[in-house]
Amino acid sequence: MAVRSQPTARQVRLGIELRKMREAAGLTAREAAERVGTTSAQMSHVEAGRTGVSEERLRGMATYYACLDDALIDELVAMAAERDKGWWEEHRGTLAHAALDLAELEHRSRRLRTFQGVYIPGLLQVENYTRALMAYGVPQPSTRQLDALVAFRMRRREVLEGESPPAYEAVVHEAALRTLVADREVARQQLAFVLEQGERSGITVRVVPFDAEGFGGVGTPVLYAYGPVPRLDTVHIDVPHGPILLDAESQLARYRVFLDKALAFSLSAERSQEFIHTIMRQL
To answer: HTH cro/C1-type domain: from which residue to which, for each copy (predicted)?
Structure first.
């Protein structure tokens, strides 16, 4: 198979899981390559996501690695066999790879949980809010770049509108609801949209108010994406120098606890809706 110059995050993740499987079996890359009839260089490419792997070879690797997790193996086979090009591929070469990887992560997930302390979560943003937020960047994007970024984020929202959308739970701090990213009219539009989405089946919006005593997590924006099996969960963290994707079990467990704690400090879904209504009336 041809070597990819820029594998996607999902292709890299497949390779990572195969490497984890090999290491759990106590085999070096050279030993594993000899057992499955390939070279160390080819094994390195597969584990880095630079080269694909056939179902036959993947199942053979799982057998040699003595992996007994049939559900995981089946999902890795499905990942390796994916040939459909998602809508985000239309933007490859014009937008950052990280943006495309996030769209694919959302699309492939069974459930999404997020905490946002400063801004409205991306999948709940209206166009004017997104435009004002992205226009604030340094350096400021050109009009063409800004239009492309805004359109892409609006397209990402469609993941919650498909035939089988992932369950979506957003915990938002009051600071994000009150910050006037644009003007008051846009703020009202934005809060109205959050309320509308919060009333839809499968979507939950909870608010952590300013007066929640003991809450110290406002500065940590997190997206937790649940895969088809727990081993394939992913954490996405947005930081100033670019997003970080985490898949180590210790990190996954850490952020599950973090999100559970944020949820514990939040108002119920019903009270959160009332709370957002109150903020809207104060604008």
So the answer is: 18-72
Contact between 76 and 15 under an 8 Å Cβ cutoff? The reply is: no
Where exactly does CATH 3.30.870 map onto the chain?
Answer: 92-282
Res 219: pLDDT: 84
Question: What is the greatest pairwise CA distance in the chain?
Answer: 69
Whole-number pLDDT of residue 150: 97
For the chain, residues classed under CATH 1.10.260.40 are: 9-81
Q: Is the pLDDT of residue 1 over 70?
A: no
Superfamily of domain 9-81: lambda repressor-like DNA-binding domains (1.10.260.40)
Look at residue 213 and give its three-state secondary structure: coil
| Contact call for residues 116 and 134 (beta carbons, < 8 A) | no
**β-strand pairing of 203-208 with 242-246:** unpaired
pTM of this structure: 0.94
Which of 245, 230, 248 is closest to 99 using CA atoms? 245
Quick one: tokens of 172? 């938002």
In this structure, which CATH number among 1.10.443, 3.40.50, 3.30.870, 3.30.60 belongs to the domain 92-282? 3.30.870
Residues 112/166, Cβ–Cβ less than 8 Å: yes
Distances (CA, A) of 133 to 95, 182, 198: 17, 8, 22
Sheet with 242-246: strands ordered across: 203-208, 167-173, 111-116, 222-226, 234-239, 242-246
| Alpha carbon distance 60, 79 (integer Å) | 16
The neighbouring-strand residues paired with 114 are 170, 223
- Contact criterion met (CB below 8 Å) for 222 and 237: yes
| Residue 223 backbone dihedrals phi, psi, to 5 degrees | -125, 125
Joined together, the tokens standing for residue 92 give 């490859």
